[in-house]
Amino acid sequence: MANGKPVKSSYKVKPNDVLTLMLDRPRYENDIIPEDIPLNVVYEDDDLMVINKPAGLVVHPGCGNYHGTLVNAIAWHLKDNPKYDPNDPQVGLVHRIDKDTSGLLVVAKTPDAKTHLGLQFFNKTTKRKYNALVWGTVEKDEGTIVGNIGRNPKDRMQMAVLSDPTQGKHAVTHYKVLERLGYVTLVECVLETGRTHQIRVHMKHIGHTLFNDERYGGHEILKGTHFSKYKQFVNNCFEACPRQALHAMTLGFVHPRTGEEMFFTSPLADDIVELIDKWRTYISNREL
Question: Which pLDDT score, from 0 to 100, does residue 26 have?
Fold first, then answer.
C-alpha cells in the first residue's frame, strides 16, 4: 500500500510516500533467548569455551529453527556472565558445523577473543580434522581436493563444486584413508578452508558421498551387492547412524590472550562408532 491505498507492483514510488507492507507471517523477533539445553563443555576459561556438539543440534537460529539451537544453549550457560551478551555479534560462535555433524566448536566470550580467533580461521592457521565414513573404496591412501564451492544451480538446497573458476569460493580439503571396510571407507579430512558443506561436497565430487548423507544422496545404497541380506544390513546401518557420518574430531588454535597453543580431541560419536563396528563385523564375516 502507498499512502493508505492499495497499489500495483508497478507503482513508482514518489518522494514522501508512506509505504505499508503486509507480511504473510508474524514478525519474528530475532533476539537470542537463553534456553536450558544440555551442553558438553570440553574446556572453558574467561576468554573462550570449547563445546562438543551432538548431532541433530542446530548451531544458529535461522529459517524454521528459531529456538532450541546451540546459541540458545550457550546463552543459558553464560546467563550469569554480565560481560556476555548473546545478541552482540562481537562475541559468540567463531565458526559453525552442520546440524547433523557432531564434534568440536570454539566460542568466544569476549570481543578480543572473537577477533583473534576469527583471524586464525581467516588465515587458515587453525588445525581442524574430521572423520567421515564414505561410500566406496578410496583408492589413494591420501590426496587433496581443490574446487570452488557454491550453490548448486540445479538444486538450491545443495552446494556443489562449480566448473566455472570465477564462481563459488575457493575450497581445499586434504584427506587420508584410515580404514577400508569393503564398500565403505573411513577417512580423515583436514580443512584448509571452511566452506558450507565442504567435506560433504568435496568427497561427493571425487565419487565418495558421505554415508547416509541424505541431502547429497548418501542415504541410498551406492555400493555393494544386490542381495536382500546386504540391503537389510545397510538399512540397519542407516538406522544405527541416522545422519551423515561426519564428526569434527580435533580442533587446534592459539589462545587469544595467553598465546598458548591449544589442541582438543573429541572421541567419535557413539552412533558413528556403532556404524563402523557393524561394517567391521560385516567384512570379517564375509572374508571367512
Answer: 57
Q: What is the pTM of this model?
A: 0.87
How would residue 40 be classed by pLDDT, with cut points 50, 70 and 90?
very high
Tell me the domains of the chain and their CATH numbers.
41-286 (3.30.2350.10)
| 8 A C-beta contact, residue 90 and residue 113 | no
Residues 219, 209 contacting (CB under 8 angstroms): no
Closest C-alpha to 143, from 179, 190, 186 = 190
**For the packed helices 228-240 and 270-286, what is the interaxial angle rounded to 10 degrees?**
160
Residues contacting residue 89 through CB under 8 Å, at least 6 positions apart:
none
Amino acid at 99: K
- Active site positions, annotated: 98
Cell of 1: 500500500
